[in-house]
Amino acid sequence: MPHTTAAHRRRASRPLPLVAVGALVAAAVALPQLTPDAFAATTLRGYADGRGVRIGAAVGDSPLRSDSAYTTALDREFNSVTAENAMKWDAVEPSRGGFDWAAADRLVAHASAHGQGVRGHTLAWYAQLPSWLKNGNFSASELNTILKSHIDTEVGRYKGKVYAWDVVNETFNEDGSMRGSLWQDKLGTGYIANALRWAHAADPAAKLYINDYNIEADNAKSDALYALAKQLLADGVPLHGIGFQSHFVVGQVPSTMKANLKRFSDLGLEVSVTELDIRIPLPASSDELAQQSADYKTASENCLGVARCAGITVWGVSDKYSWIPGTFSGYGAALPYNESYAAKPAYTGLSNGLDPTA
Ligand code: XIL
């Protein structure tokens, strides 16, 4: 809310008459129920709401269930959530036709109770597949049926509750060729259009995305995705957005990021930063934390400065549960909050990126 913020600043700089100060103190004393919501414009979600965009976080089921410091920060700061794992194939369909919605339902219920939208993640991916599917030696026609029925069931279950789906995840190699996967190898590239059509039939209101990493810069991989997206749109396939995961290394936000997002936006597609984190070699120095703060600001502005940017999701809330140390050995400290839920300089960078007056 740019105007409110600017007005607040103007008002704050003018000294208040003593009687008004007295009235304010009395009001504060009389209103012990004042919550952080009263200062919503100064939270990440306050700024995002004011701009009509999403600020999201990936949410793990375990901290959601057991860590109230985590949920306090999550619900104060974020107006969108993504299931970090709970909506992936191995989690929801551990046996063929045998669905387990417990963790996914928990997140959707939490989001609805806290005024948060849900990004669905993810339907057709090469990873986190259950072994019955990975090792099932299915024919192309069986696999087609399996994929369709999975999409019908999952998207159908959350119809009206998920505002955007990462229908397809990580389909390209770095050189722009199609990445090998169960789907690509058996069904060919046509599975992408089919998956998008099936998802659209199951929930016509959900925005349907292709999501990937290392596509933030203008490079061979993003060129290939751009060509595919253009072709899908020309073929009338319901593709609505591109998700730029944005798993960055400190100091390495690509200089071509904004121009690259803009070319996708110029096709009429939404663009979203879907999995932002900025990893630092451990232990993180104060210079690196300051650089990370600048990087959070730049990365978020690179999206929000583009016409069809729908929002930014960070891949976790606090360093306590981040996937980074387990995946990129020697790296960590990638998120806006530290392990004790103290806001890092990165939080201020992200906040300034969202605040149009900063
Ligand atoms: C990661 C999760 O954060 C981990 O908990 C899990 O063990 C592996 O997957 N790209 C994606 C996400 O699209 O689904 C991945 O999430 C991170 C990379």
TrEMBL record:
Catalytic-site annotation from UniProt: 275
InterPro entries recorded: GH, GH10, GH10_AS, GH10_dom
Assigned EC number: 3.2.1.8
Name the record gives this protein: Beta-xylanase
Signal peptide: 1-40
Superkingdom: Bacteria
Family assignment from sequence similarity: Belongs to the glycosyl hydrolase 10 (cellulase F) family.
Keyword line: Carbohydrate metabolism, Glycosidase, Hydrolase, Polysaccharide degradation, Signal, Xylan degradation
GO molecular function terms attached to this record: endo-1,4-beta-xylanase activity
Domain GH10 residue range list: 38-353
Organism from which the protein derives: Streptomyces avermitilis
SMART domains xrefs: Glyco_10 (SM00633)
SUPFAM superfamilies per UniProt: (Trans)glycosidases
